[in-house]
Structure formats: C-alpha cells, structure tokens
Amino acid sequence: EKGGYDHFMLKEIYEQPKSIKDTMRGRIHLDKGLIALGGIRDYERALANARRIIFVACGTSWHAGLVAEYLFEELTRIPVEVEYASEFRYRNPIIYDDDIVIAISQSGETADTLAALEIAKQKGATTLGICNVVGSTISRVTDAGAYTHAGPEIGVASTKAFTAQVTVATLMALHIAHFKGSINTSQFNRYLFEFQSIPDKVERVLEKAAESKVIAEIYKDATNALFLGRGINFPVALEGALKLKEISYIHAEGYPAAEMKHGPIALIDENMPVFVIANQGPSYKKVVSNIEEVKARSGKVIAIVTEGDKDVKDMADYSFEVPECDELFTPLLTVVPLQLISYHVAVMRGCNVDQPRNLAKSVTVE
Ligand code: M6R
C-alpha cells in the first residue's frame, strides 16, 4: 500500500499535488468567481464580523495556524491569534462571544486541541474545525468546519496534511475577505486564478526532488541545523526544523530570519547548515542580508529560491528552486523541498522514517 514508494512519508510528499487539488475540488469556481465552503456557509457572517479569530492546534497543525494568521490578517484584516492548544487550555484565556476559535487537527483527536475547544465553547465562542479525519471528535464537537481532503496520512511526520490545512485556510481567508469586501472582486478573481495553479507548481517542485537528495547527502552528518524564514515563510522555517528533528533526530531550530542576531547567530560556524527560505517577495532583500551575515561567519547556506534567482544562488552553498507565485501562496511550495531533504537525511541516517522513536501519530493524552 506504499504504492511503490519506500516509505509512507515519501508517498505522502508525492501525493501533495493531488491532495491539494482534492482539497480545492468543488470549492473553487473560477467561472462564477466564487469559493464554496459548504461546511461554514452558516458562519460566513460571524467570521466576517468576528472581533478576533483564534487558531488552536499542536505541532505541524500549529504551524499551519501561523500561516493562516498571515493569510487572514492580510486578506480579511481581522485580528488573529495562534495558540498552542496545551497553553491556551490552562491559561484561563480571555474569550469573547464574538470570537471565533478555529481548531486545526489532522487526526481530529488531539487531546489538548480538543480541550482548548471545550473551553472556547464554555466561554461562548463559535468554534470551527479544520480536520482531515471525517467524523473525528474535533469535527463533531465544533459548530461547523471545513475538511481537508488529504486522504489518510500514515507517516507520523505530517506532510500532505499540512499543505491541505494551509489550502483550506487560504480558501477560507479568500472567501471571507471577498464576502466582507476587504479585497475587491478583481483582486479576488486574480487570487483564485493564481491559487488553482498551485498543484501544478507543487508538481514542478517534486520534479526536482533529486536535488534534495544531493543536499541531504552533504548535510546528513550535521548535529545541528537552523531554519530561517520571514513573513509567511517564517512558519515554514519552524515546520522545516520540526520535520528534520522528528525523523532524523538532528537538533534543529526554526527562527524568523531577523531574530538570528538576537542570539542564534552565536551558534554559526562552518559546521552549521542554515536552511533559508529566500524566495522573491517583499522580504527578499532583508533575507539576502541575513544570508550575508551567515556567510560572514562561515555558516553553510542552503537556500530555497525562486526560479531564475541570481543573487542568493551566488551566495548560497546550495539552492533549490521553486516556481514563482504570489507571496501568500508560497508556503505550499517552499515547504516541499524541506520535507524532501528531511526525509532523505533520515533515510541516510538509518532512522525509522514512518515511525520515529517516542512519537505517536495522534497524541490523545495530554
Ligand atoms: O492530528 P493533529 O494535527 O492534531 O496532530 C498535531 C501534532 O501532534 C502533529 O502535527 C505532530 O506535530 C506531527 N508529528 C508533526 O509532523
């Protein structure tokens, strides 16, 4: 059932063009210029008028929440908070009845996320779910929601569930922004047109998978790694670090690139691989100077760049190209090479990729 792949994780990485497309299917209507999200239809107005949206989640799903924060704030101008469910539940959180609390969970069974939702409900907030498992506990206890259609995810390391979560968050943010008028119809249609080309662009990233193996071979013996990104790609840096540590047991940390000089820069020497998301976009020039800072300290830079890039490619030790797309959709592309590199590093180190030590697919105890 691994479909010819050595591991479920690799199969699931390769399934992403399809799982993203499946998650978009029946929801994007270019001809009519609309997004249909049946599950949240009754809550569109509540979302558009929300005082605040709070995402609660754990692990990779929390990273998807951080991406959602950028999407929702940029497109809908509604204030967003993203909370670790485990912290939120024990903090006696301040929740208003015109807040919307959205749980993101692949399994729909994560104990802390479920408990966070129960508290939000008690305090009178509307609760929504973004789950992958149909009929899961979280999908049942929420007022409404929108499923990801990633299909079963077997590998403990989440890959296609993450990109499907980001896909649903993008659809929701675009839809609510259009509904409330924070983006106009021509902006909305332009985003829609561009967004539906993402699965093909993910496919193009996967066509270059061989390069991720070359990079993995070179850095597989590292004991530490840093992942840097800015803006909407800062959460992708966190996700890249989580992927590497959970399956290869290499200590890795993700940071917003500009935070480096507030501490982690002290770690950089010739043995430290630094993975930098340096795609073209509003942060590009800033990221270029962060790369210069790393190189000045003999760090090794592996950069994720936009096709046709020159400046970063000249500076970096290795680079991996992803197709150009609107900044808001870039996490769906930039995360893929990081998933692939982690996978290959873990295989080369002889780790149990699909079932890493000490980890369970679904954390149903706190
Ligand atoms: O099922 P959930 O999305 O609620 O799970 C949340 C985390 O346990 C999960 O994302 C975990 O961090 C993964 N192992 C990451 O790859």
TrEMBL record:
Its main location: cytoplasm. Residues 43-187, 215-356 form the SIS domain. Keywords: Aminotransferase, Cytoplasm, Glutamine amidotransferase, Repeat, Transferase. GO terms for molecular function: carbohydrate derivative binding; glutamine-fructose-6-phosphate transaminase (isomerizing) activity. Its EC number is 2.6.1.16. It catalyses: D-fructose 6-phosphate + L-glutamine = D-glucosamine 6-phosphate + L-glutamate. It comes from the Bacteria. It is found in: Cytoplasm. The keyword Transmembrane does not apply. It is an enzyme of class 2 (transferase). The active site is at K361 (for fru-6p isomerization activity). GO terms for biological process: amino sugar biosynthetic process; carbohydrate metabolic process; fructose 6-phosphate metabolic process; protein N-linked glycosylation; UDP-N-acetylglucosamine metabolic process. GO terms for cellular component: cytosol. Homodimer. Catalyzes the first step in hexosamine metabolism, converting fructose-6P into glucosamine-6P using glutamine as a nitrogen source. This is Glutamine--fructose-6-phosphate aminotransferase [isomerizing]. It comes from Luteibaculum oceani. The lineage of its organism: Bacteria, Pseudomonadati, Bacteroidota, Flavobacteriia, Flavobacteriales.
